[in-house]
Design a protein that fits this description.
single chain; mainly beta; about 15% helix; globular
Amino acid sequence: MPQQAKWGETLTVKLDVGFITDAFKLNTSTLNGPDKLDGTTDFVDITQYVQGININRGRNSQLDTFNPGTLTITADDRASSRSFDPLNTASPWYQGSLGIAPRRAVEIYGGSAGTAAMFKGYVYDLNIEYDEPNLSTATILAVDALAQLSQTNLTAFNPAQELTSSRVNTILNRGEVAWSTALRNIATGIATCGTVAYEDNTNTLQALQAVQLAENGRLFASREGLIEFDPRVSASFGTAIATLGGTAATDIPIEALQTVYGAETVLNRISVQIAGGTASSVANGTASQTEYGIKNFSLTDVPLVDNAAGSALATNLLTTYQTPEVNFTEVGILVNRLTQAQQNTVACLEIGDILQVVKTFTTGTPSSVTQSVVIESIRRQITPSRHQIVLGLGRIDLLLPFILNTSNLDNATYALT
């Protein structure tokens, strides 16, 4: 059953064991108990046995693709009477074989009620460590939906010219992939993919990652287990869903904040070669090159429709990265310090969410700096004594709608919707 942590958050860990677990059994189940005549679920609640949870999702920078997210659960197998042990045929989850098997679903929930999904994925591996004379620890390794896609390959086909979002759906709809439409959320893209010929045995995830690079957007597995595709966004009319580090009562306190500033943040010669092309489209920031030296970044075999699309992508990247900026890149949050409302907010944080981060100083000028950022990665470490979150952050410019007789002309903060 859900367990309340010492800091007040409720945690729930559910594991699919492959067969109905709450069916009514004569001489076993009790009247007015939790079991039902036909049963309803394959999931068992293993929260009471869990000793630690580690979740790692996202990417290192906005120029990277997303690799599969991972989950590690450490559980006390002795306390469960060796229920996790595949050698124990007396396990309640053993019906000819142990139900904890690769591709079984696993779900982690948090927040004040233990109902906010923090990870939904699939069991990849189960390890049992025996510590004589009779201790045993179970370690469950799980991955998200991207890992499922990485294990399938495409058969050769040549799709028509289409938007990047349509190409994502085209790949997911292929018979050899057959990804459920109920398990995807594909936003409309900006860039157009060409009639790229996909060779036989092209890895599905790699094909999708190439489309993400063509769009300069995001393709990742959400905390709810969906394949998400976000279009190219460098500026947004969106608003921050939370403020971190501020002084207001509702602002979420932070434990640590990292920034980056220097040559590693500058890219001023961008080259993009489209799939099937020979020449690259190059965007040069000559003033930036004079000031900081030439810093190259190149993309090859990008499935865009033509060189003009490649040039547009190169120009977009150049505009974003040719000038060094002081960027907040990582922030740490200790859930133990948060109110219930704040716990619910951080339990629901997702890649692509916009945040406002405030850093105050006791010396120097200005006394505080506020930046709008977007979440690019989420790491959670949960132990019996604490829940630590580390968010990887990316750049985002927030715009305000231009209002006649109110907004200022030539102010880059305002734009037409």
